[in-house]
Each structure stands twice: as C-alpha cells, then as structure tokens.
Design goal:
With 259 residues, this protein is α/β, with parallel strands linked by helices. It has a single domain, classed as Metal-dependent hydrolases (TIM Barrel), CATH 3.20.20.140. Helix content is 41%, strand content 17%.
Length: 259
C-alpha cells in the first residue's frame, strides 16, 4: 500500500521518546506519504513545529486541546498565530474543541478557548482540527455558528450528525475505531460520508486498529483502518488510500499531486 496520509498523529507524545527518530525514518518505507501532527497544548505546538521542519513528509497543526485550557498563558493566541505565520510547515489550528468526559471541566472556559481558536483560524485562513467527546450538542452549536473549514477527527457520532457536518462544508476523519467490535454507529456514519469528504487517521500512539489492539499505534497501521473503510465503501483499498490522500492534500492546502 502507498499514498497513506495520516491526518492526525501525536509523534511528540512521550510514548515515542525512546525511538521517535527510528519510527519516523521508517514510515515512508511503509507507504506513509504524509502525516499531520496534531497539538494538544503549547509544548506540543512548539515540538510539532520543530518536527515538521526536520522531516519533509511531516506537517503540523498548532492548538490547545479542551483538556488543557487551564494550562495556557494569557497570550496563547499570539503564540499560536506566530507559530503558523512563522513556519510554512504549520498548516492548521488543532486539535481544538470540547471534551466533557472527565469531571471537573469548565464548560465556559472550554467554549471560550474553542471559539477564540476558531476565530484565529478564520483570521489566518487555515483549517481546524476539531475534537469532541461527550459534547456533541454544544460542539455542533458552535460549528453551525462559525462554519469553519475543518475536520471533525476520530469520528464516533451518528450518521445524522455526520451528514450535518458535511453540509457545513467540513470533512470527517476516521480512526482504527471502525475496526473495533460493536461500533455500528461509526460504521453507519462512515457509510453516510461521501468519498470526497473522507479522511483517514490513526490518532497514534492511541487507537491502534484491530489486529494491533493493545500495541502502540503508528501511521503504518492505518492500512488496517483503510482495509475496513474500503470494505464498507465497497472500493479497492488502494483507491480509497489514493482518494483520502488527495482529500487531505486539498484540505490542508498542500501542493502535491497524487498518482
């Protein structure tokens, strides 16, 4: 397999501290053509921009994950702005959004930081990578208002929600989740997403697909997600990889031709 574009990965994560260079050096040999590094906070933003500058096939997004909204400096928007403007390999704002999964979160603070970053992305004319967990109603309310150029990553919502996201002009990213048991809702959502709005991702080092469950995930494992997605969409696996790679280049405004 080739033309693998992993649209959401976390190679700055400590899970790769012992062998990051080795993993990243080997990925192109395994069919990985491009990877987008998603950021969870200010440290990630700096680390990902640096990594993207060191590897031709890596690009980066800069942003603050909703779980980290209480751990950012007052001038975080200025830092994100300068990171995007100062590095041509930084192509997006993300991952950003809402996450009500754990107790103790501040809904108001999460919404404030989410909307501030959406406004920054609009100002800079770059796409956003949206994270949402246990917060679909509020997330959709904000997306309807801002209508960003964006992707909802690691999608686990309903087919109806997927269709509404598509109508907003956005993309939807699927992870190895679609290979797990008892994920009928995600499968129905994938069925509802048109091929020209479909992106593939790993969210590595998390979300390793079957048959790699329990192992540290990396971008080469996206082939298993692609196989499942191709089965659902009833297309050859390589055709699906070609299409999703082309979609990702277009979405992130990366000037590359997919053959």
């Amino acid at each position: 397999m080739f033309n693998i574009f992993d649209t959401h990965a976390h190679y700055a994560d400590m899970a790769f501290d012992e062998d990051r260079e080795k993993v990243l050096a080997e990925l192109p040999e395994k069919g990985v053509r491009c990877v987008m590094l998603a950021s969870a906070g200010m440290d990630d933003t700096a680390a990902n921009a640096k990594l993207a500058s060191e590897y031709d096939y890596l690009y980066a997004a800069s942003g603050v994950h909703p779980e980290n909204v209480d751990n950012i400096p007052d001038n975080y928007i200025d830092i994100l702005r300068q990171t995007v403007l100062g590095n041509e390999k930084v192509k997006a704002i993300g991952e950003i959004g809402l996450d009500y999964h754990y107790e103790g979160y501040s809904k108001e603070r999460q919404e404030e930081v989410f909307t501030q970053q959406l406004e920054l992305a609009s100002e800079l004319d770059v796409p956003v990578i949206v994270h949402t967990r246990d917060a679909w109603e509020d997330t959709m309310k904000i997306l309807r208002h801002y209508k960003p150029r964006g992707v909802v990553h690691c999608f686990s919502g309903s087919a109806e929600t997927a269709s509404e996201i598509i109508k907003l002009g956005m993309y939807i990213g699927f992870t190895g989740l679609i290979t797990f048991n008892n994920v009928k809702r995600a499968i129905r959502a994938l069925e509802a997403v048109p091929m020209d709005r479909l992106l593939l991702e790993t969210d590595c080092p998390y979300m390793a697909p079957v048959p790699m469950r329990g192992k540290r995930c990396d971008s080469s494992m996206i082939r298993y997600t692609a196989e499942k997605a191709a089965e659902i969409k009833k297309v050859p696996v390589q055709d699906l990889l070609d299409i999703t790679c082309r979609n990702a280049y277009e979405f992130y405004c990366i000037d590359q031709e997919v053959r």
